[in-house]
Amino acid sequence: MAFYRRIRDLREDNDLTQSEVANYLGMKQPQYHRYESGLRDIPTDVLIQLAKLYNTSVDYILEITDKP
After folding, report:
1. What is the pLDDT of residue 1?
2. C-alpha–C-alpha distance, residues 28 and 30, integer Å
3. Burial, 13: exposed, middle or buried (Cβ in 10 Å; 0-12, 13-18, 19+)?
4. pLDDT-based confidence at 68, cuts 50/70/90?
5. What is the pLDDT of residues 1-39, one digit of tens each?
6. Which end of the chain is more exposed for a tag (fewer CB within 10 A), N or C?
7. What is the 3-state secondary structure (H, E, C) of the chain?
8. What are the extents of the domains in the chain?
9. Domain 3-61 has CATH 3.40.50.2000
10. Helix 18-25 × helix 29-36 angle, to 10°
């Protein structure tokens, strides 16, 4: 479940705010915050969009691999 930390780290490494990522995903910032803090499970379609945004794989986000 530590993959929530990985999406925060990816966002910070790309110098993006939660609001910017939420806007990219077509949602409000509080909803995205709940994903990033682990309060809600991240839907598959959101994982795919995040992987595209950060030019990485869903496996990396889910910590199945450490290879971005």
Report:
1. 55
2. 6
3. exposed
4. confident
5. 578 999 999 999 999 999 999 999 999 999 999 999 999
6. N
7. CCHHHHHHHHHHHCCCCHHHHHHHHCCCHHHHHHHHCCCCCCCHHHHHHHHHHCCCCHHHHCCCCCCC
8. 3-61
9. no
10. 110
Token digits for 3?
Answer: 């993959």
pLDDT value at 67 more than 90: no
Residue 57 pLDDT class (50, 70, 90 cuts): very high
Integer Cα distance of 7 and 10 in angstroms: 5
pLDDT the model gives residue 60: 95
Label residues 19-35 b or e (16+ Cβ within 10 Å = b).
Answer: eebbeebeeeeeebbeb
